[in-house]
Amino acid sequence: MLPLTDRLALTRTELANERTLLAYARTGLALMAAGVGVAEVFATRALVLVGWALVPTGALVLGLGAVRFQRTRRVLRGLGASAS
Question: How many domains does the structure of the chain reveal?
Answer without folding.
Answer: 1
